[in-house]
Amino acid sequence: MYAVGYAGKYQNPSMARKAAFYQALTDMAKQVQTHLIFEIEDIADGIFRLLNPTFDLSYEAVALLEIESGYTALDSSISADGYFVLISYPQTKHKISANDKEWGARPDWTVNLPSSNEYYYGVGIVSNYSSWARAWRDTDEYARFDLGKNIEVAARSVHTVQRDNRNVVESKIIRQSYDLTLKNSIIIARWYDKNGDTYYALCRQPRSVTPD
Q1: What SS3 class is residue 210?
Q2: Does residue 105 belong to any structural domain of this protein?
Q3: Alpha carbon of 206 to those of 42, 100, 185: distances in Å?
Q4: pTM value?
Q5: CB atoms < 10 A from the CB of 42, how many?
Q6: Is residue 104 part of a domain?
C-alpha cells in the first residue's frame, strides 16, 4: 500500500514535514481499515425533491500505531506549494523515478464500474474545489462510501397520500443506509478532468474480505 501526505505553506519546514507525514499515515490507516456509516434520505411530494445524505468515516487508532512502527518513507519533496511525502506499508524497498505524465483520456471506470468476481469497487467524484489537496481527500472518502454502498445497503420506503376537497398530495420518503467496516480498501486510480474541474477516484476491496 502507498499513501501521499501533503502540507501547505509552512514557515517552519520541520512542522511542514510532521504535518505531511501525519496526513500520509492517516490516509494509510483508512486503507487498512475504515468504519463507514452512511444514510441518504430522499423526500419527494410531486413538486419538490430533497436529498439529505449523511456521512461518517473513522479509522482505528490501533491501525495507525501499527503503521507508524512499520512504514517506509520512499520519497519527499518541498516546493513553493508545500511539503510532500510518499510512504509505503508494510516496509519495502522501492526506487522512485520522476514521472510527469499527463492525465490523458477519460478512463472508462469514471462512467462504468469495473466488473469483477474478485473485487468490489466504488467511485468518488467532487468538483470546483479551491484546494486540490482537500478535493483529493474528499474524493477518496466518497469513493469508499460508494464502495460500501455497492457491498451492502438497506432501503426503507414510506409512501403517503393526503387528500382535501381540491387536491391530492402524494409524498414518498426513501432511506438508504449501511454501517460497515472496510478492510484493505485501496484507491487504485485517480483522474482529473481539467475542462470540468472534476476529480475522480476509484476504490477497490477484495470480495474475500468480509465486512464487519
Answers
A1: coil
A2: no
A3: 30, 30, 8
A4: 0.71
A5: 16
A6: no
Q: Which of 86, 91, 187 is nearest to 142 (CA)?
A: 187
Domain containing 181: what range? 2-93+116-206
CB burial readout 81-107, b (16+ within 10 A) else e: ebbbbbbbbeeeeeeeeeeeeeeeeee
Q: How many independent structural domains does the chain possess?
A: 1
Between CA 160 and CA 172 the distance in angstroms is: 6
Nearest to 85 by CA among 105, 104, 99, 71: 71
Of 27, 8, 30, nearest to 17 by C-alpha is: 8
* pLDDT tens for each residue of the chain, 212 residues long: 899 999 987 778 888 889 999 999 999 999 999 999 998 888 777 667 777 888 899 988 888 888 988 899 999 888 887 899 999 998 665 554 444 457 889 999 999 999 999 999 999 999 998 888 889 999 999 999 999 989 988 777 766 666 666 666 667 778 888 999 999 999 999 999 988 999 999 999 999 876 56
In a domain, 190, yes or no: yes
β strands within the chain, DSSP E: 2-7, 33-44, 49-59, 72-79, 82-88, 119-127, 154-163, 168-183, 186-193, 198-206
Phi and psi at residue 173, to the nearest 5°: -120, 125
Crossing angle for the helix pair 13-32 and 132-151, nearest 10 degrees? 10
Mapped onto helix, strand or coil, the DSSP state of residue 13 is: helix
C-alpha–C-alpha distance, residues 14 and 179, integer Å: 39
Q: Is residue 211 in a domain?
A: no
**What is the 8-class DSSP label of residue 116?**
-
